[in-house]
Amino acid sequence: MAITSDHSVRFALDGHVVSAEITDPTLTLLEYLRLQAGRTGTKEGCAEGDCGACTVVLGELNSEGGIDYRAVNSCIRFLATIDGRELVTVESLQHGTTLHPVQQAMVDCFGSQCGFCTPGFVMSLFALYQQPSGQPSEHQTGARAELGRTEVVNALSGNLCRCTGYRPIIDAGCRIASYPEPARWNRDDARSADRVARLAGLQRDTALKLPGFHAPRSSAEFAAAYQAAPDSLILAGGTDIGLWVTKHLRELPPMLYIGEVAELQQIAVSDQGIEIGAAVSLTAAWAAIVELIPQLDELANRFASPPVRNSGTLCGNLANGSPIGDAMPALIALGADIELRCGDSIRRLPLERFYLGYQKKDLQPGEFLTSVRIPKPAPGLIFESYKLSKRIDQDISAVCAAFAITLAGDTVSSARIAFGGMAATPARAPATEASLIGQPFTAATITAAAAKLADDYTPLSDMRASSGYRLQTAMNLLKRFHLQHSGSDTVLRTDEAAL
Asked: Hey, which of 275, 333, 495, 498 would disulfide with 402, CB 3.0 to 4.6 Å?
């Protein structure tokens, strides 16, 4: 039977239901594990979701009646947000004296030295092991059952180690499927009827309300609560707000958690495109977007790390409005719009018009973002998005560019160009676009248009890049786009475009 009311957070842990009383709504999952539950295998390294030492795995019921297991950063995840979920820590994996295959592979491949980061790596690999592609099949046994290196590296992109140089850890990840499935955490056990029933019994019929924390269950309930208390802080994945607590030491206003609103957890696909609700994780959102627009696959993989993408939401990223948010340039270039709700009133707005200035959005008191709609690319649309940063994995952009151009024969008939990192908000390049429309898609046209970027943007210098670097690389990225789609055999890589 579902829970109707309570003031405690309930979750499953090692086959038991845990009820945790919360007096501080900003208590992180990491703090709870180390200070209250005595589970010190989970470590604090950075307290901002970068190093992965705090990684744990959350299990959540899916629409097919099973359980999805995803790695998350416990250092910036508030305990109140795991209500109704299953928690798996590094202590959960060992069964008696038998190590889990992930742990045994780390031992056999000498994947640990000082050991501080090791539990986080183990949990990221455990999350990979629980994915269909990460598990052995009836036809994969022995040493031949290995995962691809790229798959393992992607799964570990949110984990940092100062000792091993990563090679033995990656070797361990590639070998985890070669071990016999353990009695505990095999495919049947991880999604057993008992586990599903336990989680189903933890689902609430009414909103969880704690001091300073309210998790409405419907969009109407959420809208009414926010309209009544417009000074509340909307919490989604907490991948940014968590840092306000752990790094800025801020006192937060009462929080409205959007993650339990069923209507906002949906992805709607139609002939016109896709609409992604405000509570949809970045992981699910990017998967849907890449299916519609395969050119965004690299950007999706380089967007933060798997634990961050598993907690954070796409709409939360859009509502945050950071000038260096990587999603906005691509969605603006594609002509995305957003839905905003205040009480019972709903309006739509082109995403590019949502940003009024640095950290200023077109939002009325009590109004919140409910979804983003991305149109299906029109036939003949040429589209690319590029990210420049100091490293490939888990780094903030210096410049992020998106180009969407349609040709009529050899002539540019339409152009939408957007950049992040070049202004106080993600923004289009109107002068550059105007110089392209009606012109032949030639190197001369592109060179002239690239010069117009100086009219569209006056970038700042900061720790990530100088203004000159940003402007020059923006110009080079436009040239790269042309080379990639002009029939030339010469195609620059992203890092070459910066030279």
From this structure: 333
- Looking at the structure, tell me whether residues 100 and 233 fall in a common domain: no
Q: What is the residue-wise DSSP string for 339-393? A: EEEETTEEEEEEGGGTEEETTEES--TTEEEEEEEEEPPPTTEEEEEEEE-SSSS
Residues 161 and 238 in one domain: no
CA R_g for the chain: 24
pLDDT value, residue 492: 38
Judgement on whether residues 101 and 244 belong to the same structural domain of the protein = no
Indicate whether 310 belongs to any domain: no
Read out DSSP for 146-198? ---HHHHHHHTTT---SSS-SHHHHHHHHHGGGSPPPSSSSHHHHT-HHHHHH
Phi, psi of 298 (to 5 degrees): -65, -45
Query: Which positions ≥6 away from 323 have C-beta within 8 Å?
Result: 358, 420, 421, 423, 424, 425, 426
Q: Which two tokens stand for residue 81?
A: 């947000």
pLDDT of residue 181: 87
H or E element at residue 477: helix 467-485
- The helix/strand/coil state of 6 is coil
The CATH number of residue 247's host domain is 3.30.43.10
Low-confidence ranges of the chain (pLDDT < 70): 1-6, 133-145, 488-499
| Nearest Cα residue to 47 out of 32, 30, 33 | 30
Inside any domain, residue 284: no
Q: Residue 8 belongs to what H/E stretch?
A: strand 8-13
CATH number at residue 478: 3.30.390.50
List pLDDT tens digits, range 81-96: 999 999 999 999 988 8
Quick check: helix, strand or coil at residue 107?
helix
Please state the domain count of the chain: 3
CATH number at residue 62: 1.10.150.120
Question: Phi/psi at 281 (nearest 5 deg)?
Answer: -65, 160
Q: CB count, 10 Å around CB of 457?
A: 21
